[in-house]
């Protein structure tokens, strides 16, 4: 019996170490209870009343202060990436990339800096389960001597769309239905199937890598195209990769049900227990580099967030490594209040014409101003810890607690030499053009080549898992949506479309498989309007191929997760 129970505990394969007791015995050196103003609390047990059974008294200052603070104890959760965990660590430069960047952190092999990393699910709320089928947020902050540098990405090298106008729609599609307040597979797949460029991302989500068994067992990606420039001002385009040295390991749908049924904090518990047990997770950092000339001659848009740069054309160049070796002393202070933004860059690193990255550089910071306040940079985890003399220009605002610059004058220009900028740090210029709304479909409509490539890198059993996962997760989506998604899959590879159709219990011969990648908004809208007569709900599919699976499902994990560390041998990195 014990043997069977052990076999059915999917979390054991993560080897985080012995469970950490939930007991917390930390007590302050001076345990005296005080009010916010420093006054000692006289009574924390009995409210002040007018007689034994009389009304409460407004003069019970502690009761009202205690309740008023509690009412404001929960800050707005992140709209996306609400459920996350994080840790402190250290980054070390291991290879010379000074020919690409003048960033001081990379000026010498052996340079080190403090880092903080937060990893998360994306769609779920702050109380959602960790082991859900979803992409994972993957953010890391480098506390360099030139300021904070944030790489804010995911555990996938691509994303669902290439224009930021669709950001809010993605949020609405993966969150709860406004009437039922339930998750809606129909909404998810209506949105995804209507954006053919999302197929590579949804293929990854529904593959056997859709539910990482632990944050430690997943790779991280900057996903976007960024740029680097050296001392001479020579600029190149780059992508950032963070390869897990633990390897790749995932849960099946069936294992995830077991895990979530007994522990909704499985990923957070794993990270906490691994670090507390001294089992520090490590990642190696790489970059892909594309010259400006290569970008101009690239067969597809090199700034398209829905595509990878092929590793055979742009091999990964080693840069450094980091280890997460300290779990936060207080979760709320560090993990809940850390405020990442792509706007946090340093000299030698810059953005690119990637439309989504351009938008995120403003909107992420603005979200934190709303969520945490305009002075959130004063929270220690958001402070430029690597800068010797931080001296920002901002003043006043809610919760200003750093002295507010005292009597220092607060304007420029002035006659006293205060607030000097440094024109030498200006980044290389971008090419311009006529300002208007450009239809990105006209620029690049190759939506299906890379999903087909990824599909054909999978083993037959991985393909079967992809079919089964897709069918299960489409739930009661309308027949129109299921036909549309099958059509997209078929365009990537006929076997992909046929496999999904079979798992859904749909005769492939009933599906209109003719598809021409839309090269304009008009063509796209016409494509999505097809099969209107099929706009009726269906029953959730139970794939025939999955009916006699063992309790743990169809496990396609590599026997040794470390065999998927190296980028050269990882089939899911195209």
From TrEMBL:
Q: Does the keyword Metal-binding apply?
A: yes
EC primary class? oxidoreductase
PROSITE patterns xrefs: CATALASE_3
Q: Which InterPro entries would you find in this protein's record?
A: Catalase, Catalase_clade1/3, Catalase_core, Catalase_immune_responsive, Catalase_sf
Cofactor(s) for this protein? heme
Per its UniProt entry, which superkingdom is the organism in? Bacteria
Active-site feature positions:
81, 154
- Region Disordered, residue ranges: 1-46, 523-574
Q: Name one GO molecular function term.
A: catalase activity
Q: Which residues bind heme?
A: 364
GO CC terms of this entry: cytoplasm
Q: Which residues form a coiled coil?
A: none
- What keywords sit in the KW lines? Heme, Hydrogen peroxide, Iron, Metal-binding, Oxidoreductase, Peroxidase
Report any one BP term from Gene Ontology: response to hydrogen peroxide
Q: Which family does it belong to?
A: Belongs to the catalase family.
* Protein known as: Catalase
